[in-house]
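ERR on first pass: missing label on line 2. Operator R.T. fixed the label and resubmitted. Corrected input:
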Amino acid sequence: MSLRNAVMAVLLDGEASGYDLAKAFDASVANFWMCTPQQLYRELDRMEADDLIRARTVEQERRPNKRLFSLTPRGLEALAEFTAEPHKPTAIRDELMVAVMAADAGDVEKVKASLRERRQWAEAKIGRYERIKAKLLDGRTEEEFLTTAERVGPYLTLLRGLSFERDNVRWCARCLTVLERRGARLDASP
Amino acid sequence: MSLRNAVMAVLLDGEASGYDLAKAFDASVANFWMCTPQQLYRELDRMEADDLIRARTVEQERRPNKRLFSLTPRGLEALAEFTAEPHKPTAIRDELMVAVMAADAGDVEKVKASLRERRQWAEAKIGRYERIKAKLLDGRTEEEFLTTAERVGPYLTLLRGLSFERDNVRWCARCLTVLERRGARLDASP
DNA sequence: CCCAAATACTCAACTTGTTGACTAGGTCGC
DNA sequence: GCGACCTAGTCAACAAGTTGAGTATTTGGG
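pass 2 clean. output:
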């Protein structure tokens, strides 16, 4: 029921196709709202039925037609109402953390491998976010940007994504150190 | 399908009732795996059917009977296998971040109120985590704990929860400052 | 020249997660 | 001594999310 708000928040930047939205979600919304393309398409149909978005079919010569969605006045209103409501606490699901919690009774080497992989992923994500950030700032300093830009929302959420991933990197490194040292100790003592 | 792994990770600490598990989830597992009591009870029945856990009914004099669950050898094995598998990327859902992204087109004052509330929540959580941490360390330094304790998994995940919430507090504060300044500017200039 | 990847989706089946109400006794504070 | 909250769950109905496959065309790399 709440995916729609995330979709509308992206549509504030203007028309987009389902496919565009899927990419936008992948690129930057994924920090705080994950979804599969299937969910998106299904939700878009419902939102159109509820008059929150309107679709404009664009016939393309050498490609399948696409539908470009944009916010209706009702949609904009619904989004504004959503921002005013109280929000549910963050819901997280992280299998790696479950594995770390159970690492003492599991395959420590494999958990370490997963931690290394996660760290790499997080580093790659930081790179992408930095690029998006540079694009948003567009040469301005943060100070300039924050006072002159029309929208600051996407920038603020991007900052959260960045610090989340930086924290991830640090945590993975910490876990690896601890598990490494323990491995050494357990090999030596018993 | 993966809630069961989180349940088994908690059961490594020993027998627990469905209710105990619900509390444990609320207190510390909630950082990386959220679930409702209903989900838990349903999953516990299935896990018992799959011989991953065993239930021992304890008759209580002045209370309804309770069932205490513990890991079976199969459950322990399944958990170890899980730790060795590759893990899905983190799935997050955070309505507040959606609201912040859409704040420019929404009710900025209400979003600020939500940010303040979230910050308070995060601060309260930090307090609880610090208390759990102190209990785990039990007077030892971190160094001592990490080399002497039987399990380090719960400690490591606790650290992640702590830094996540500290980051939350910082981010909320940052958003509030930015939205405050913008409010001032928008009131003054047009 | 062929294969892979990108564009732009759709469908069906299945598994999970959410909501709200209900049972039932006990204890704690005002 | 009454109402609220705690223990310890259960049930049903519904909403949401996941998985896997399928369609059809075009662009780009080796």
